[in-house]
């Protein structure tokens, strides 16, 4: 299931012809595919440094005023450890949790200190292209530059530098206590309150092809536009398949599961490289909480997802309008509504059953998405994520649709509800509270719990809050409060007295 290995020959076979001069007129084409992080269902998820991972200014000043030796917490408990082993995570399991906690604390502090020193001294040459990425290969000019000896992308697989048990510095007392670095203390006033923005500045600016006025507008809203189009593609095909089965009064409704799975695959191919093709507010929230998706983008994504769902329902209804009207001559409108929205499909399906149906289905979907996006697990070959997620949606739909219709997605249910309300189907669409505790509460809770289980049992990356120590959680909360205080101070402009103006 891993797919073919993404080697140089395979990449070269899939590269298109590029006429000389094309990249001069379209500079964005020469930019690597991973020029910016995209939390995409079509490829491995990005590895990002979250705010809680980077110390604050107060923490740095406190560390410089009270320097600690490497592995100090472990040594206080009488442990003989090698700081290099701690930095590499080589911590033995013991019956005393205090000893393991001390070694984990020493390893975390040592890694953070090394990172901060690299950032402040300018020694860090990060690259947005990982050593295992399948970024677009540079053409002849770039190949010549590499042969000329220009800097290569930073690789996280470089061997760790040896860390001495006592720092090699001239600023040591007779007792071996380490004094703060005088260069760092001199520039104390120039230190920002938060070093995390410095990490963001290490990434290169994205290049854009702006040929028209519309292209400028599209550049600023490209992710939302792509997300809305992907949702429209997915749901239009899914709704049309459901309506076709309903108005035909024949066929097995489970066959529509294939349509939903293939529609999901198509949608991910449409926008997976631009917006990530979340297609689902629950997935967007899950990726924000567990993988660092920027929360400033979430409102625009939510709007795009609901707008796409709304217009997909209207489009499907319009295409099948004549068949729907013919069907309603001899049938109740319940079948038509069930083709668009999910519900308790049978009288014996109580609220608890409906909630946990949506909960379990979305939880399995979220865990699968994180597994496919984990490049340290068993990621599929290039281009295979979309197909596998489509097959996953097919399996979940055919498994859980009998009881509720298998929404697993707030926008997939709420958007068409609003569309049917606009088409005159009336208030019964909202009289049953299922619309809230099923597609909304059930899917959101399921996504969060499913992602938690994957990270708790498998994922090792530090960007997940499951792998956050409590100190990093507190640090992240402090930074959030600091950010809001700065915004409030910026919003309160001082009032200048009239005398001073005069």
UniProtKB/TrEMBL annotation:
<dbReference type="GO" id="GO:0005886">
    <property type="term" value="C:plasma membrane"/>
</dbReference>
<feature type="transmembrane region" description="Helical">
    <location>
        <begin position="348"/>
        <end position="372"/>
    </location>
</feature>
<dbReference type="Pfam" id="PF00230">
    <property type="entry name" value="MIP"/>
</dbReference>
<feature type="region of interest" description="Disordered">
    <location>
        <begin position="1"/>
        <end position="29"/>
    </location>
</feature>
<dbReference type="GO" id="GO:0015254">
    <property type="term" value="F:glycerol channel activity"/>
</dbReference>
<dbReference type="InterPro" id="IPR050363">
    <property type="entry name" value="MIP/Aquaporin"/>
</dbReference>
<feature type="transmembrane region" description="Helical">
    <location>
        <begin position="302"/>
        <end position="324"/>
    </location>
</feature>
<feature type="region of interest" description="Disordered">
    <location>
        <begin position="147"/>
        <end position="174"/>
    </location>
</feature>
<dbReference type="InterPro" id="IPR000425">
    <property type="entry name" value="MIP"/>
</dbReference>
<keyword id="KW-0813">Transport</keyword>
<feature type="transmembrane region" description="Helical">
    <location>
        <begin position="229"/>
        <end position="251"/>
    </location>
</feature>
<protein>
    <submittedName>
        <fullName>Aquaporin-like protein</fullName>
    </submittedName>
</protein>
<dbReference type="GO" id="GO:0015250">
    <property type="term" value="F:water channel activity"/>
</dbReference>
<feature type="transmembrane region" description="Helical">
    <location>
        <begin position="384"/>
        <end position="408"/>
    </location>
</feature>
<feature type="transmembrane region" description="Helical">
    <location>
        <begin position="257"/>
        <end position="290"/>
    </location>
</feature>
<dbReference type="InterPro" id="IPR023271">
    <property type="entry name" value="Aquaporin-like"/>
</dbReference>
<keyword id="KW-0677">Repeat</keyword>
<keyword id="KW-0472">Membrane</keyword>
<keyword id="KW-0812">Transmembrane</keyword>
<comment type="similarity">
    <text>Belongs to the MIP/aquaporin (TC 1.A.8) family.</text>
</comment>
<feature type="transmembrane region" description="Helical">
    <location>
        <begin position="434"/>
        <end position="454"/>
    </location>
</feature>
<keyword id="KW-1133">Transmembrane helix</keyword>
